[in-house]
Specification:
Layout lengths: L7 H4 L17 H13 L5 E4 L11 H11 L4 E6 L6 H10 L3 E6 L6 H11 L6 E5 L40 H4 L2 E2 L4 E3 L10 E4 L5 H5 L2 H11 L20 H12 L1
Parallel strand pairs: 1-2, 2-3, 3-4
Antiparallel strand pairs: 5-6, 6-7
């Protein structure tokens, strides 16, 4: 996943000199292209998703990075997850012409807001696999329409719907670091999308190849812990995510790689 843009109100206390310097909130195109070229070297065919912690439509280089992804990793699945606030027929056509393969629109304001997006989908000539509407208007006790709501490693505590803080690390395996990672707007590689407080950085693509980070000793240690249901390290010690809903097939592959 890529989080190529950051909300300045959220980042102002974390990033110096944000005021009047919008560029620091956008992942530089040359950095992104470097990541894609590294993935090209290994014939990457997985998913490239613009989502995570911010609205991707506010990233000013979105069309350009979609094109780069398509050029460097032509067999990859390229997706945008958006709330749809800035979606127009022109943008929809532009992004799919650039190489986008799927758009997920999260609708929060009720089922009556679906029709305008359905009309856009039909006008653009897209099927429901290419343009998918995610129903997120449900009540808190229905987990907002999300199948498995987590506490986001301690950052999202809602006891009223049984999403609680964890005081003792769960003895539960987790497969996320075996098959996915997050590249943040500043180049930081984060362990997974449940770490909303961004407490664990695995490296930075401005300084190190994404391949070297992915194959690093730091990742090996985390994978070893989580494969053995050991969450006694930050941020996993505060996380209640299932972590085993998918990705189990990659655990044995990594074991073979490490032992080989």
């Amino acid at each position: 996943d890529f989080c190529p843009w950051s909300d300045p109100e959220w980042r102002s206390s974390h990033v110096p000199n944000v005021a009047g310097n919008d560029d620091v909130l956008h992942l530089p195109v040359e950095v992104y292209e470097g990541v894609m070229k590294d993935l090209n070297k290994v014939g990457f065919k997985g998913g490239i998703i613009y989502s995570a912690f911010s609205e991707p439509f506010l990233y000013k280089h979105l069309e350009e990075v979609i094109k780069i992804s398509k050029e460097q990793c032509p067999e990859s699945r390229i997706e945008v997850v958006t709330n749809g606030d800035f979606l127009t027929i022109d943008k929809l056509n532009t992004f799919f012409e650039a190489g986008l393969t799927r758009m997920d629109v999260s609708v929060y304001d009720g089922p009556d807001k679906v029709k305008p997006f359905e009309d856009l989908r039909i006008e653009a000539g897209l099927n429901k696999e290419q343009f998918h509407i995610r129903e997120r208007w449900y009540a808190p006790d229905e987990h907002f329409g999300i199948g498995a709501l987590s506490n986001r490693a301690g950052a999202n505590i809602m006891p009223e719907i049984n999403v609680n803080e964890i005081h003792t690390a769960l003895k539960r395996k987790c497969f996320y670091p075996f098959y996915q990672l997050i590249v943040d707007f500043d180049g930081a590689v984060l362990l997974c999308n449940h770490d909303w407080d961004k407490r664990l950085t695995m490296g930075n693509v401005k300084e190190t190849s994404i391949l070297d980070i992915w194959n690093s000793k730091k990742y090996k240690e985390v994978r070893g812990n989580l494969a053995n249901a050991n969450r006694n390290h930050s941020p996993c010690n505060r996380c209640d995510a299932n972590g085993m809903m998918m990705g189990g097939e990659f655990v044995s592959k990594w074991k073979e790689y490490y032992e080989g």
